[in-house]
Amino acid sequence: MAALNISLEPHLVEILTPLKPLLPSELATQLLPYVSEPALPTVPYPLLQSISQWTRTAEGLLVLQSASLDPHSYSMVALLAGTTTSPERKFAAYTPEKSPEEAEALKRAERRAITYLINALLSILGSGFAAWWAAGKTGWRSEWQVLFALLVAAVVAIAEAVLYLIWDSRRSNKRPRRKLKISPEKRNQAVVKEVEASRGETGVPAGLRQRVKG
C-alpha cells in the first residue's frame, strides 16, 4: 500500500516552520522541502507521525519548552486538524455496516425471493405438462401438443415474471434507506483512534481514510 499524504495547509506550515532548526538532523532534512518556498501541496503522513512522536520524547519536550513552543500543537490531532488525507487520491465511498435487524431482514427477503422463483418454475412446468396432457386427450397430434404446452408455459412464465417484478418493486420501496451523516466531531474521533492505534508502530495506519475538518 502506498504511503498516505496529508494536504499541507498554511496553518500546518506555520506550525512546522519553527521546528526546522530544533529537530534532529534527519527529521530536519526531511521536513525542509515542506517548509521552504515554494511549499509542496502535501506532506507524508509518516513524517508528521515521526515529528509528533519526537515532540513527546523527553528531549523533544525540553527543546519545545526552551523555544516557548506548545507541545500540544504537535499532537497528531492538532497536526491533522483542517487537513485532507491524500487529496490526490480517490477513495471509495464509505458504506456503513448493516445492523443485525437489517441483515436479518435482507436474509428473509432473499429466502422469500428464492421460494417465489421455485414456485414460479414449478407453476410453469406444471402448466406446460397439464396443457400437453390435456391436448393429448383431445386427440391432437404430438407436434401440436408440444406447441400448445410451450404456449401455455410461456404465458404462465410471463405472468409470473410480471408478478415478481411488482412484488420486488414494492419490497424495494418499503426497504428503509440509511443516510450516512458524519459530524466533524465523529471525524475527529476516528482520526484520534487511528493515531492512538499507530503509536509505537513504524508503518502508516492502513485504515486512515477520513477527512478531518477543523
Automatic annotation (TrEMBL):
Tagged with keyword Transferase: no
Keyword Transport: no
Transmembrane segments annotated in the record for this chain: 116-135, 147-167
GO annotation, biological process: vacuolar proton-transporting V-type ATPase complex assembly
Record keywords: Membrane, Transmembrane, Transmembrane helix
Highest taxon in the source lineage: Eukaryota
UniProt cross-references to InterPro entries, sorted A to Z: ATPase_Vma12
Region (Disordered): 177-214
Compositional bias of kind Basic and acidic residues: 182-199
Protein name: Endoplasmic reticulum-based factor for assembly of V-ATPase-domain-containing protein
Species of origin: Roridomyces roridus
Organism lineage: Eukaryota, Fungi, Dikarya, Basidiomycota, Agaricomycotina
